[in-house]
Amino acid sequence: MNHELYMTRALELATLGRGFVSPNPMVGCVLVYDDRTGPRIIGEGWHQRYGGPHAEVNAVRSVRPEDEHLLPQATAYVTLEPCSHYGKTPPCADLLVEKRVSRVVVCNDDPNPLVAGRGLTRLREAGIAVETGVLAERGRELNRRFFTQMEQQRPYILLKWAETSDGFIGGPGGQPVSISGPLAQRLVHRWRAEEPAIMVGTNTARNDNPSLNVRLWHGLNPTRIVIDKMGTLPQSLHVFDGSQPTLCYTYNEPPADMQATCVTLNSGKDFLSQLLADLHHRHIQSVLVEGGVALLSSFIQANLWDEMRVFRSPKMLGAGVPAPAPSGRLVSREMVGPDELSIYRAR
């Protein structure tokens, strides 16, 4: 059978879980039966929501009753090594063994120490043929947040900002200004729905008073992360309104009535390293950093970022707060309404 064809379909299915399965990876599964008339798909599934059934379970459940007897002759195409441990759901490797599928084709091995080859070993020990590495690069691209989380022990960091055509990110004195157009703003809300957390610095929280929620798109509100090293932000700001989970990182003791989870870091150690270590401990897989310029620049200078998304507007300010300089490898450039969107990768 054409392994790449069916793995492509499994990868397409996996993307349907974007924004709903973190900190788990996005996973898709396709069950294919091949006889003298040619191969045909008898089941499909994807991991739809964190804590819910995994892709393999949903694929098996989708098989019609009249086709269930075909499973022992079927090939399962799975975008990530089937899990072998009990978490929120039973092991998927055991399910495939129970259904006696004849072969499992996998895109990527799972770097999670709880799996890390054990799922493949379980399948092979049960006499199931196993093939790995089919469209592996596409699988890593799809789950680059998950692989960063597992391999680098930190969240995947996306830096986002909008700048004018003359290179300013804000008005004189940090005055908030509207830079990007309505289509770009809607796209940003889509991005917010796709990431588990969104971060702003002290000045942006105070000057812009953002809500950091999803209003222009359908999806889950991200956890808000606010930097307030000196503990000077007023509790009347939107980020402290209790409407969605909020983490506040500071060097000081928080107010007793704060409607956020406050994390006091050690002032004698590197702030960003402590911050990312705590977010990793909380299983936050990725963070969309929306500014301001001091926070964005701190990630860039520390080389602790993975992706930059930069809108360049045709508007001119003439004076104001200079935008950071983009760096890394340019991977795409397109127009979003009147704004030019450039995306860069660190590696």
Keywords:
Dihydrofolate Reductase, subunit A, 2 domains, alpha/beta, Cytidine Deaminase, domain 2
Strand-helix topology:
Elements (H helix, E strand, L loop, with lengths): L2 H12 L13 E8 L2 E9 L8 H8 L11 E7 L11 H7 L4 E6 L9 H8 L3 E3 L4 H7 L1 H9 L3 E8 L4 E3 L11 H13 L2 E4 L1 H7 L14 E5 L18 E5 L10 E4 L6 H11 L4 E4 L3 H9 L5 E6 L8 E2 L6 E8 L2 E7 L2
Parallel strand pairs: 3-4, 4-5, 6-12, 6-13, 8-9, 8-12, 9-10, 10-11
Antiparallel strand pairs: 1-2, 1-3, 7-14, 13-16, 15-16
The CATH architecture designation of the largest domain is: 3-Layer(aba) Sandwich
CATH level 3 topology of the largest domain: Dihydrofolate Reductase, subunit A
Q: Could you name the CATH homologous superfamily of the largest domain?
A: Dihydrofolate Reductase, subunit A
- Which residue ranges are poorly predicted, with pLDDT under 50 across at least 5 consecutive positions? none
Mean pLDDT across the residues is: 95
Overall geometry comes to elongated
Report helical residue fraction: 25-40%
Gap between N and C termini:
34 Å
How much of the sequence lies in strands comes to 25-35%
The number of E-state strands comes to: 16
Pathway: Cofactor biosynthesis; riboflavin biosynthesis; 5-amino-6-(D-ribitylamino)uracil from GTP: step 3/4; Cofactor biosynthesis; riboflavin biosynthesis; 5-amino-6-(D-ribitylamino)uracil from GTP: step 2/4
Protein name: Riboflavin biosynthesis protein RibD
Keywords: Hydrolase, Metal-binding, Multifunctional enzyme, NADP, Oxidoreductase, Riboflavin biosynthesis, Zinc
InterPro entries: APOBEC/CMP_deaminase_Zn-bd, CMP_dCMP_dom, Cytidine_deaminase-like, DHFR-like_dom_sf, Eubact_RibD, RibDG_C, Riboflavin_Biosynth_HTPR
